[in-house]
Amino acid sequence: MWSPDGRRLYFASDRGGAENLWAQEVPAPGETPETSEPPEPRPLTHFTAGRVLWPAISADGRTLVFERDLGIWKLDLGSGTAAPVAITLEGAPAGPPVEHRRMTSDFTSLALSPDGKKVAFVAHGDVFAAAAQDGGAATRVTDTPGVESQVVWAPDSRRIAYVSDRDGVDHLFLYDFTTGEESRLTAGPDADDAPRFSPDGKTLAFERGRQELRALDLATRHEHRLAAALLDAPPLGSDRPFAWSPDSRWLAFLSYGERLFRNLQVVPAAGGEPRAVTYLANTNADQVSWSPDGRALFYATNQRTEDGRLARVDLEPRTPKFTEDQFRKLFEAEPKDAKGTGKPAEKEKKTPPVEIDFTGIRQRLTLLPVGLDVQAAVVSPDGKQVVLIASAGGQSNVYAFSIEEPAKERPVPRQLSATAGEKDALQVSPDSKEVYYLDGGAIEVAALDGSVKPHPLAVNAETDVDFARDKLVVFDQAWRWLRDNFVDPGMHGVDWDAARALYLPRAAAARTSDDLRRVLNLMIGELNASHSGVRLPAAGVPRTTGRLGLRFDREEYEAAGRLRVREVVPLGPAAVTGKVAAGDYLLAVDGRPVDGSTNLDQLLERKVNRRVTLTVAAAAEGAAARQVAVRPVDLRAEKPLVYRRWVEANREYVARASGGRLGYVHMFDMSSASLSQLVLDLDTENHARDGVLIDVRNNNGGFVNPYAIDILSRRGYMNMTVRGLPTAPARDLLGQRALERPTILLTNQHSLSDAEDFAEGYRSLGLGKVVGEPTAGWIIYTSDVDLLDGAQVRLPSVKITDRTGQDMEMHPRPVDLAVVRPIGEGLAGKDSQLDAAVRELLQEIKK
């Protein structure tokens, strides 16, 4: 917050150990030499404990108000006295009423029964079931104060098992539709997840505490451990990390091993040691599926940022099948039935025993040529196809891929769905004719042969959404998941049980979802960790206010109320007309005059992609005014144009400052799109420079830092010369991106997360010097997990350390040359950090 005279900046900080309010004096322009150190900030309050949040300054600049320990305080800036503000609430508190919903989507945990006649699913935390063909009103199975998930059917299609956290820990329950009775299957302090019935229906396998694969005898209720392993489970992992063999004698499961590579092992259901069956150096793997004949295993595997591959493991050496043999079978006599009617006898279906030949099994893994980014795979019951959830062009859909032998032609994936929703919970009907799946939370059915377009299963689940009950469930979900998944088992020194006791009454008093999220964020804030909190998922609300791609002179507007164009954003709506220039005045929009009291945004509301006529003139008086037709864009479209203008301005700045010797690139974040943009920005002009400035200031992270580092760290080792053409570095001609130029890196306190990984890699590998400010110390890898009310809690679960073992969270990455930009220097067209980087890199090049 600024003081009214603009000479003082107020802010909240815990730099003294506890949270307090601080003030920073800001000299007037020209008052302090550029070489002088800025004045040190000073504390205004002197609390030794407690939270200081949401400060605000009064209009006269004399008072700061803020929240402290869930109360309102004020600070008199004249006397320096801070005191609580007494507030008395009157009237009855209002909260949302119980809402009766008839849900047709937002389902999870879809399960198709083995007989293909029923579906079970979860709606708003409870289990429902309905007819698989007709849909209709679903039957409620559970109605508990907890959340149910991970529903599976027993082979008899009469019972289901599911996970419930109703007592604060994930445990397994069984529901019998014939008796209408529910029974608890597991108990204890550790979470039980991923239930799976054996094909013979006698045993239920599950995971416990992500450390054990266990089996429960459903008749005796005796359970035993099958394997100790590093497993994955909800909420961060898959609910299908293992599969039974068709004969119920084996289980195949995915586990983490050396360097966290994730591979398949198999273990006998009767007991014995697990044996490895795959040996891929991939850290990601999911969705195990056993072929119906028991001869092969399928699963999705990949490295992050690489497309998922469909892996097949043949458990015995595969015997080739020949079309000639199929033709000969056409002449074999068919056996007659016992009555002698002449009708062919029905063959009794027997499940052959599954045999595994471990000798040479590592050579029997095949990555099938699907050509898609595979996320999930299920083998059809007839064993002829693998049904996939896979992505192409960033869009997830359902595909079918033939594995029938002998193949009549080379198989290619056949797309079954074509919608924008996220796909999940893939199921194939027992006759291998239909595919059931969730599309954006709605149940869809598609014909496996593609003859019929996918259609929704018209099922509805009626439930009451009671905020008064749900809020405590949501609170407990967030608290418990952080307890079990937070990156530091010691919870950063916070007594997490005490934090729950402190904030639970506040959550119970919450009257709205916003109140609840605020209480949760206050509790999570006690951890003092980055990448944390509870939030609503991005809603994708359309932005309806038009943007012209114009920047106006602030001083002229404040002094005279006139909109004088300071800059025309390249490629923006005004720029593409070629009829608006810097220095012009905007006089009217669609004939409505513009002056100091006009709300320009209001004039452009609901004008996105519509014709708008601007009246502009070279002089404020309006002489020789002209009409310019433009088509405004929304903020989402204008923002990248403004950003690219800033990048190009920096590029020109560096070229001028270095006499044309140095190039410049900036990474907006560490996304795959920014990595692609880096490749584009390292163009022929930058490759031709003597060195390049790499800028990650204000980069808020992502996940591609090793790929960007790779481009900068590769060194040349030979050249190639095409006859008649100049000699060139071999890496480029062989198709591998490599800059092979001296570089220097710029960071600041707003370089966050994966940008800090990038800075650490740059320093650790000795690629060059780092200039600017230390990074934020804001680096944990996290995942978003859905809560019952639709909000998401972030679970920071992956710790990042440097090569010395130091935790990078709360430890900013240092710089070699510290340069702090004075406040406001950008308004003067100056960037002292770029200047310092140019000087330093030029000196390095001279050496």
Account of the protein in words:
- This protein has 847 residues and is α+β, with helices and mostly antiparallel strands.
- The protein is 17% helix and 32% strand.
- Helix 11 (705-713) packs parallel to helix 13.
List the helices and strands and how they pair.
Layout: E1 8-13, E2 20-25, E3 42-43, E4 52-57, E5 63-68, E6 71-76, E7 81-84, E8 99-103, E9 107-112, E10 118-123, E11 126-131, E12 135-140, E13 148-153, E14 159-164, E15 171-176, E16 181-184, E17 192-197, E18 203-208, E19 212-217, E20 223-228, E21 242-244, E22 250-256, E23 262-268, E24 275-276, E25 284-290, E26 296-302, E27 309-314, H1 323-329, E28 365-368, E29 373-379, E30 385-392, E31 395-402, E32 414-415, E33 423-428, E34 434-439, E35 442-447, E36 455-456, E37 459-465, H2 467-485, H3 496-509, H4 513-525, E38 533-535, E39 550-552, H5 554-560, E40 563-568, H6 573-577, E41 585-589, E42 592-593, H7 600-603, E43 612-617, E44 626-630, H8 635-657, E45 662-666, H9 672-681, H10 684-688, E46 691-695, H11 705-713, E47 719-721, E48 727-729, H12 730-733, E49 743-747, H13 754-764, E50 770-772, E51 781-786, E52 792-798, E53 817-818, H14 832-846
Parallel strand pairs: 12-37, 45-46, 46-49, 49-50, 50-53
Antiparallel strand pairs: 1-2, 2-3, 4-5, 5-6, 6-7, 8-37, 9-10, 10-11, 11-12, 13-14, 14-15, 15-16, 17-18, 18-19, 19-20, 21-22, 22-23, 23-24, 25-26, 26-27, 27-28, 29-30, 30-31, 31-32, 33-34, 34-35, 35-36, 38-52, 39-40, 40-41, 41-42, 41-43, 43-44, 47-48, 51-52
Helix pairs in contact: 2-3, 2-4, 3-4, 11-13
